[in-house]
Each structure stands twice: as C-alpha cells, then as structure tokens.
Amino acid sequence: MIGDWTYRFKSRFVCDESDSPVEVHQATQIVPPRSMNLKPIDLPLNKDLGEAGCVFQSAVVLCNLLTDRDHALYQYMNSEKKVVEVGSGTGVLGLASAAVGARVCMTDLPHVLDQLRGNFQLYCSNNPLGDELRMRCSVEQLTWGCESDAARIGKADLILCSDCLYREETHRSLLDTLKALSADHTLTVLSFEIRRPPIEAHFIEQTRESFEVEQFFQKGDDDHHIQLYYLRPK
Fold first, then answer.
1. Rounded distance, CA 106 to CA 90, Å?
2. 14 with 24: CB under 8 angstroms?
3. Rounded distance between C-alpha atoms, residue 159 and residue 97, angstroms
C-alpha cells in the first residue's frame, strides 16, 4: 500500500494438459481506492525492456498526488490542460491521469511504443471508460534531445517525468527535451527513487540552469527513498 493506491505483483501459471506449468505471466497491478470507482491498471512485466518494462514506487506515489482532489496537481486533471508524460515506460502515470479526466500524451522511445500501446489498449478493453480514454489519450514517439519529436508533440501545461534518471549519459538530452516541451507557464513534476545519490544530485543541479527547482515531497524507509520536485522555467 502506497497512499490510497495498492501496488501488487501478480503471477499467473499457464499449464499443459497434464497440469504442469509451461508458462508464467507476470504483471504489476495498480489498484485505485474503491471510492474512485476505477478499474485496476494491469501492466504485464516485460523484462526485455529493462527499467522501461517495470513500475517503480515513485510512480505510484505520484499517482496518489495526481488523483487527490485536494492536491494542487489535480487542477491539471481535465481536458482543458495538456499533460505530457516523458519516458512513460508502462504508462501507469498517463493511464491514471486519463482515468480521472486528464488529456494525456504518453511518450517513449520507438522500441518501447509497442508495450505502451499494448498497455493502453489493455486498460481500455472491458472498461466502461474505454471510449473516453481513447479520446483523451495518445501515444507518441519522443526521443530525448530530438527537436523534431518535441516540436511535433508541442508545449505542455504539465510534464510528468518519473524514474527517468537511470542513465547518466541521457541526462542532458532529457533536460533539453523538458525545455523544448515547456512554455512559460509549464509545470514539470520530477519523481525518482534515490539509487545513486551523487548522480541524482548532479542532475538536480543541472536543472537549476534553466528551471526554478522546488522539492515538495520526500519519503524514506529502509528500502526506498523517494523524492519529488517541481520544475518551473526561469
């Protein structure tokens, strides 16, 4: 349990005629609180994609804040605002945002798009909100540092960037993309789990070149230390 959203790991065994397991399907399930009356989000685990095939706890924390009617971020959860998720991976943040009313563009690298589209279609299927979600959500290629990709997507009101700091060599390209997607009014939400403190701290310092940086959430225990920041263009 992280906030009001439940984080589960599921395994389903597919057996042959002799009842011997021949295949294992693994997935992460993100379950909204019952009061929201929303369908759980099932996200098949794709180990071939590395970190892009996994759901991390910082994303689930951000799901809680985005869908909390009393939180400042909830003002972006409507069709009048444009939300862009960079490095969407499984798409959990985009799907949760769209489920509560946001207009979302989920983005990632070309080799991740099949997973992202598949998870989107899976969530829309057998979902009373399916048709609405298809109208509110889109999936687009966005290679960090690619000016033409960023120009095609356009400026955002809210940018979601969760667990995108794994590879230090991509940090400068990520920052260039965040700047390209930002207008004067754009708010970026950066969330991540501390894994390599000097590297993550250096990224935060780099963002100060172009953004006003405000840490607004942190949560730590023996296993996880999660931080969230607001980035506003200078």
1. 10
2. yes
3. 12
CB 162 within 8 A of CB 59: yes
Q: What pLDDT sits at residue 2? A: 46
Ramachandran area for residue 228 (φ above 0: left; ψ -120 to 50: alpha; else beta) = beta
Contact (CB, 8 A) for 171 and 190: no
pLDDT at 125: 86
Q: Is 44-233 a domain of CATH 3.40.50.150?
A: yes
Record the pTM.
Answer: 0.88
Task: Show Cβ contacts of residue 200 under 8 Å, excluding neighbours closer than 6 positions.
Answer: 165, 192, 194, 227
The domain segmentation of the chain, as residue ranges, is 44-233
Q: What is the mean pLDDT of each run of 10 residues along the chain (234 residues)?
A: 55 47 60 74 78 81 90 94 96 92 96 93 85 93 97 98 93 97 98 92 96 93 84 97
Q: Identify the pLDDT of residue 6.
A: 62
CA–CA dist 129, 151 (Å, integer): 30
Residue 22 has what pLDDT?
Answer: 43
